[in-house]
Structure formats: structure tokens, C-alpha cells
Amino acid sequence: MAAGVGILVLLILVLWYSRDIPRPDKIIDRSIAQSTKIYDRTGEHLLFEAFDTQRRTIIPLEQIPEHVKWSTILIEDKKFYEHGGFDMKGIIRAIVKDILTLSKAEGASTLTQQLVKNALLTNEKAWSRKMQELVIAYQIERKFGKDQILQMYFNEIPYGSNAYGIESASQFYFGSSAQDLTIAQGAIIAALPRATTYYSPYGSHVDALMARKDFIISLLEEEGKITPEQAQEAREEKIEFTEKSNVIKAPHFVIWVREQLAEKYGEREVEQGGMRVITTLDWDMQRKAEEAIEYFAETNKENYDATNASLVAIDPKTGQILAMLGSKNYFDEEIDGNFNVAVQGKRQPGSSFKPFVYMVGLSRGYTDKTTLWDVVTEFGKKADGEEYSPKNYDSKERGPVSLRTALQGSLNIPAVKMLYLAGPKNVISEAKKFGYTTFGDPDIYGLSLVLGGAEVNLLEHTAAYATLANNGVRQNTASIMKVEDAKGKILEEWLQEDGEKAIDENIVKILTNILSDNNARAPFFGENNYLTLGDRPVASKTGTTNDYRDAWLMGYTPSLATGVWVGNNDFSAMKRGAGGSTVAGPIWNRFMRNALDGTSTEQFSKPEIEYPDKPILRGDMEGGTPIKIDRASGLLATEMTPESFIEEKIFRTGHNILFYVDPEDPTGPVPSESDRDGAYPKWEKAVQRWMEENDWKADEGEIPTEYDNVHVFENKPSLSIISPYEGETLSGDIITFKAEAFALRGISRVEFYVDERMVSEGRSEPYTGRYIPNMQDKNGYKTLKAIAYDDIDNSESAIVNFNLFIQKTNLTATWSAPKNKEIFDETEFPIQIKLEVPDRVSQVQLFAAPASDPSQYTLIRTIASGEKNIETFWNTIPKKSGTYEIYAILTKDGIPSRVNGIEVVLDVPEGE
User: Fold this and answer.
1) Beta strand 37-39 with 276-279: parallel, antiparallel or unpaired?
2) In this structure, are residues 629 and 650 in contact, taking their beta carbons and an 8 Å threshold?
3) What's the average model confidence in pLDDT over 720-728?
4) Which of 52, 303, 490, 543 is most buried, with most CB under 10 Å away?
5) Kind and range of the H or E element at 464?
6) Residue 106, phi-psi category: left (phi > 0), alpha (psi -120 to 50), beta (remainder)
7) Which pLDDT belongs to residue 157?
8) Mean pLDDT throughout 877-898?
9) Per residue in 164-218, pLDDT tens?
10) Does pLDDT of 653 surpass 70?
11) How high does pLDDT run on average in the chain?
């Protein structure tokens, strides 16, 4: 009863959707499909060599071998000769599946339905279109015989790459007629219609195509269409496809884009829809990438047995892919060149994953100065029962090193310790925020994760580095900018998004600061290495697996992130020494230099680094105790030790970081002996062993037990100001101070201050100071302070107050050179000075003083000629740039008077 109702409902639906459907004879009279074209980002460079018309050659069914015909029937529609156009059971199964999965109508298509779908209807996934398909298929079955339908199918169906019909497909893929197809070739042809892009012989899923081919051969054998001997021979047949290099550019990228399009819009729309696709690819940059890989290909192969390479370049600010090479040569079958390493490959990243481990460590309170002991350490048992005790690439131990040095030197032992401190689960959790999808359970990798124990693909790895370049903001990776249909309607278009914050911006800035520090890298890789780009700031990291199966170089500027992988597609090892800096580095460096040539040099944002109080975290040696020491005596500083003689020294105590840090709370209190981490004993044992073997002693020796014995009361100088006396009125343009001082160790200097401004210094008896009031000094009471110092800055001070009274003078000078506010540099010295003074001036003193500190004046020249027109030169170049006042003190009738001056601006080398 229920089944009858279902059939009745289905018949009603069929009648409803049968309105306005195409006539079955329209299969012969219809428009020609249009090819999809894929362009670079400018829309000017055609990447996929499409054609204006379909490749199609009509042949009769008699010219199609029986094994080819049955290959198609058995894989696509086994009951073709039994049904009336559609398979009711298959339709019901599809309906149930679509209801359960909440998906749109698809599947359960007979050969007749496929013919209708490709010849008369759209590829829309909707039940309305499905119903029309059923009606027309039924009508076609009534109008044409089975072999007629089969002949139309073989001449109509798309086989990919604009090849329509079996004859065109045979010619395109094998260079032979359909009637000459072998059993294996026929099985491949039959395998294509289900998903022409995915199963393309020139795509990235050739293994899947071959598996489908073998499945079809097995069907032929099971149904008795071929003998077991023929089946075995077909399975073993070596398949050779025709060359396709002349019809496609950037093939790995283009085929990957086509797969995305096919998944979203359907195979038929990609093959026939006439879409215009603008990708993100920068064609100029793509060619530079191809050139860089080709340039070093032969060298890497001959010297290191490295037969393949892959490169991805991404714009960090947008996530757009600018260049992609999945292999060094897509069409090189010897290396499986059509395999897209960038997208499909899962390879161990070696040390190129270390930055993300250190990044998590930085976020938990460790700093670039945090000290980690680079000594061979036992980290526990591996799954095979052996002790996990990794070594550095050069098998050396370096003792205590900073986090910055450990990362830039790509040292393995400190990296494993940082992973332990950061926590493998935390690292993988944070890494996934950067777009990695290939990681499994952290427990699978253990501490080997930091040395590249997990697997990544180059595209995601480069995108993660691009997120670092974008200060921790992740942009979704994009390969398509715009898709238009044949009428120009925009189907999709890329838009700039804000991105997703993966981690704190300042943490990434610190990490970038480390990765771009060539000084920290130079002791390990040399000053001139492939990780640098001359004067252009760049952050970079190498990666090499222990067995030399994978070599990486990852790096970025603010506007370009690039990753390079070198290795072999069959996972065979390269020769020893084929490290990331050796085989991947030259490619990366050549590409980056060429890609960035002609662009402006960008600087990385500077980080704000705050160091915690805990010595071990801020890099005080290996975490010793900071002690204030008197430089003069070498003993403990006291309250009497002057600041100028206090220095803080770190006295090493020789413990590993777990002595000071609880991994769960790195910045918290130092753990007690009973609360130390479980790994502490093994880490400590390694440290003590290394110290003993290397006779490692503290540079500062033992902590002193005695206190400063030279900065004591009896060594303090005695001091008294002789002139002026308290309350004395002083006048004149030059005022002289006098003081008497004595010390057991002798007096080294006496400094004179007026209202806290140092105006002069005396270094020998009698201790005098000279004060020239400037134009800003006003009449009134001022405080004079004198400070006497001995040779180790024991000091004593004295203070008097005096009344400053400066008489206004009518004397003036007329300056003719230099001009007021005139600018000079060091090449223009000596500077000519010309001025006119009043009559009866017996002496002229010329001074120069920085406007910012007039007390630091210098005497230019004293002239006692009595002449009215003064002409001389300023010969000595000051040590600092800035504005200087040139002024004069005129002596007339025995009375000196300061007169008006001028200002000049000097631009001189600092400190010279």
C-alpha cells in the first residue's frame, strides 16, 4: 500500500516537472558547450590553454571495441540493457541518502540520464531538474534503440580537457583512435566521466585513476568479457599518456584550482560552462619560482640525490597564493612530477616547525634571553623502549645558551626542552590556529614533535609562516579571485577580510625579531648565508629531517612568505649533508631576491619585550643570583657605595631550568625541592655531568662574603666653599667660585652647580669654577652647590646661597657673519665670524654654547686689538649637532659686559 502511494506521488511529480521540458530529438539540435578559461591575477595571462570549440569526432558504435563498451556499461550502468531509461531502485536509494544527509539530488544516473544531463539539461543539483531528466530519459528510450543511445553517449559525453566523445578522448590522452584502445586504455577512458577533473591523467590523483582502472578490469573479468590472462596483462600494462605541457601553465596550481571549481560547480559546468576564472597567481612571480627551482635542479640532483623541489609563495596580508610549484617538473614521470607536493604531500618539517614551539614558550612567560642548557639529556623511554636522548646536528654540546641562540642555531636539545616546558598539547592546539590540519594526537609524537616528528604539507606550512608575517593574524588561503559565468555574471569574488587572530601580536613580533637576527645565526651558519636578503629584513628558518628525506627553508618579509621543500617523491633519502640551508636555501634565496627586486624595503614591527623578575627567565646566565658589587673593591656594595661604582653581577649556581621553574607556572615562585618537576633529576644530572667534564666555573667566582671597605666614612672628602660667602651679592658677566677640599685618597675633581645645573668643574688646586650667566638667568638669590670627589667617587658636598645682580648694559654688537639661524655642517668649518663693536672696547671674548645647555660653553677666541671691526674664525667642530648661541663679552673701561649674540644650527657627525 505504502509503496503504491509512493509510486503515485512520484508519477504526479514527474507529470508536474514534465512541463516545458526539451524534446528528446533536441539532443541532435543544441548549442555547443563553451570552455572554462583560467587566468592569472591580472586576467591577461591564460594559464589553462582552453579552446573555443569542443574536440569532438563522431564515430559509429561498431568502431568501439567490445571491451571498451562494456567497461563503460559495467562501471556506470550495469543494467543498461534492462531498464527503460532510469533505475527506480537506484532513485529510491538516492532519495533516502539525500534525506539522511540533507544533500541535494545526485547519483543513481543511468547512461541515458547522463546523456540527457550533458546534452539537454543543466548540471543543477535539484530534484526539479532530476525529474525532467527522468522524463526525457524515458522518452529517449522509447524513441531510440539501446545501441543508438550508446552510440550517442560515446560521442557526446565529456572526458575532460575539452575532449568530447570517446574518439577525441582517445586521441587526446593516448594519441590513437578509439578502435585501437587496449583493455587497460579502455578502462581508463571509462573511468573518466564520473569525475573528469579528479581522475584526470594530468592531475594530482593519478593513483586513484589507476585504482579505478584496475577495478573496471576486474569487473570485465568477473562478467566474462575478458579472460583472466587478458585481465592480468591489462593490469600490468604500462600506461603512457600524451604530453600536455603545451596547453597548460602553472599546471599544479591550475589543476588544483580546477578541482576546487569542479567540487563547487560540478564537472559539467567546468568542462562546458564557459566560466572565466581569475586566480590569485602572479604570473611574473610564478616564472621566477620556476626559474629558481630549475636553476638549482641539476646541482641538487648530482650532488645530493635530490630529484624534486616544491615552492609556495603567499601574500601574508591577504592569504592569496602568488606562486605554486607542486614539483620541479609536472611532466617528469620519472619523479612522479604530476604529484602536487605542495597540496597533497605530507612530509616531516624538521626544525622548520621549531618557531611554533618557541612561540608557545614565549606566550607562557619565557623570553628570548631565557637560558636553556644545551647538554645531552635523557627525556624518557620511547615506544620501542629505548631512551630518547637526541643530539644536535653537529653532535656538539654548548652548555647554557639563550632561547634566541638556540632557535637561530637550530639546536635540537634546547628545542626539545622548550617543547617539554611549553607542553606538546599546547603546541599542537596553538599550531592548529595557524591553519595546520595534518596533526593527530600529540601523544603520537611526544617530544620528537619539535624536531619535525609530525607531518605537514607545504601549502599549510607556508600559510602558517605567512600568519607570522602578518603579526599573528591568519588570513584564509585563497587561490581564486573571481569566477564569472559565460554571460559575465559574477558567481564568486574574493573580498579582503579582517582575518582571525591566532596569537598575541607582540609574541609574534618577538619571534620575528629572533628569526630575523642574523647576528645570532651567524656563529652557526656564517655571516653570509642563504637565510638573509642583504639589507632587507627577513625572518627565516631551515628544516632538515634526521635521515635527509626532507629539506626545508621557510621565511618571510612583511609582504611575502615563501616556503621551499626539497626531497624525493618516493621518500628515498638524499645524500648526507642535504640540509635545508644547502639544498632548499639557494632556491628560496634566489626566488625571494628576484620576487622582491624593485620593491621597497619594509621593516618588521618592533616588539615590546618585558623581562620578568625571575633571573632564569630574563637570561641571567643559567639563572644565578643577582648581587650588587662594588667595582673598586670587588666586595658587596653598601649604602655608602656610590651608584657610579655599583654593578650587578650574576653568580652562577649551575642548575637546570627546572630548578627555578614550574612548567605549569613559569613566572610563579621557585618550586621547593619536593615540588620540582618529575624531569628535574635527569635534566640536573646532565647539567652536572657537563659542568664536570668541561671544568665549568663561574666567571664571577664565588659570591663575596665581605662588604665594600673603600667607600667608608673615613675616606669621605672634606669640603668648604671659600667664595662666595653666604648671602653675598655677585655681579659681572663672568663669576668665579672657589672651594677648598681634602681627601685621604686625593681629590679628583670638584663640581659646581647653580640651581642644580652644573656650570663648571675644577680638577686641581685651587679648585675654582667659572659661571657665565646666560640670557635666561634672572637676578635674585641662587643656590651654589659644590661636590668634591676622590678617585673612587667618595664624595662630600657643600652649599651656599648668593644674590645674583647683573647690571644691564647699553653695549651692543652688530653681527654680519654668520647669519642668525644659518645652518652649517662639518665641511663648512672653519666658520667666519664678523661683527662690529662700540668704540673704546679694549677686549672682545667670543663664546659658543649649546642652546640646550649654555653651561657647556667654549671660548672661540680672545681679541685685544681695540679695533671696532672684528673678524675671526670658529675652528673647532663641536661634538654634537643642534642649535648653538655665539655671543660676545666686551670689556670697556675695565668692565666686562655680555652683549647680544646670534644662533646657528650645526649638523655634525655625533661623537666625532
Assistant:
1) parallel
2) no
3) 94
4) 543
5) helix 458-469
6) beta
7) 87
8) 86
9) 889 888 888 998 889 999 999 999 999 999 888 899 998 888 999 999 999 999 9
10) no
11) 87
Per-residue H/E/C for 416-444: HHHHHHHCHHHHHHHHHCCCCCCCCCHHH
Pair 130, 95: CB distance under 8 Å = no
Specify burial of residue 393 (Cβ count, 10 A radius: 0-12, 13-18, 19+).
middle
Task: Write out the E strands in 724-817.
Answer: 729-730, 735-742, 749-754, 757-762, 767-771, 780-789, 795-804, 814-817
Q: How far is residue 206's CA from residue 227's CA, in Å, rounded to a whole number?
A: 26
CA distance 363 to 421: 12
- CATH code linked to domain 713-804: 2.60.40.10
Q: Which amino acid is at 83?
A: H
Secondary structure element (H or E) that encloses residue 79, with its range = none
What percent of the chain stands above pLDDT 90? 57
Confidence of residue 787 (pLDDT cuts 50, 70, 90): very high
- Domain 280-347+457-610 class? alpha beta
693 φ/ψ angles, rounded to the nearest 5 degrees: -65, -30
Asked if 811 and 899 count as a contact pair (C-beta separation under 8 A), the reply is yes
Q: How do strand 490-493 and strand 539-544 relate by DSSP bridges? A: unpaired
Look-up of cell digits 539530488: 105
How far is residue 273 from each of residues 37, 714, 851, measured CA to CA in Å?
A: 10, 100, 77
Q: What is the pLDDT of residue 112?
A: 81
CATH of 55-195, one of 1.10.3810.10, 1.10.8.870, 1.20.1250.20, 3.40.50.410: 1.10.3810.10
d(CA 57, CA 42): 35
Cα 502 to Cα 215: distance, rounded to the nearest angstrom: 45
Q: Please check the confidence at residue 558 and state whether its pLDDT lies above 90.
A: yes
Cα–Cα dist 663/651, whole Å:
24
Which strands sit side by side in the sheet containing 882-892, from one edge to the other? 822-825, 895-907, 882-892, 841-850, 858-863
In this predicted model, what pLDDT tens digit does every residue of 98-132 receive, in sequence order? Answer: 545 444 444 558 888 887 787 666 555 555 556 67
Taking only the tens place, the pLDDT of each residue in 839-870 is 888 899 999 988 877 767 888 999 987 888 99
Give 497-540 as a 3 state SS string: CCCEECCCHHHHHHHHHHHCCHHHHHHHHCCCCCCCECCECCEE
In this chain, the answer to whether the domains covering 55-195 and 280-347+457-610 adopt an identical fold is: no
d(CA 698, CA 590): 45
B/e letters for 257-277, b = 16+ CB within 10 Å, e = fewer, are: bbbebbeebbbbbbbbbbbbb
Domain ranges of the chain: 55-195, 280-347+457-610, 625-693, 713-804, 814-907
Each residue of 564-606: pLDDT tens digit? 999 999 999 999 999 999 999 999 999 999 999 999 999 999 9
Given a cut of 60, whether residue 28 has pLDDT beyond it is no
pLDDT of amino acid 105: 44
CATH 2.60.40.10 for domain 814-907: yes
**Environment class of residue 512 by beta-carbon count within 10 Å: exposed (0-12), middle (13-18) or buried (19+)?**
buried
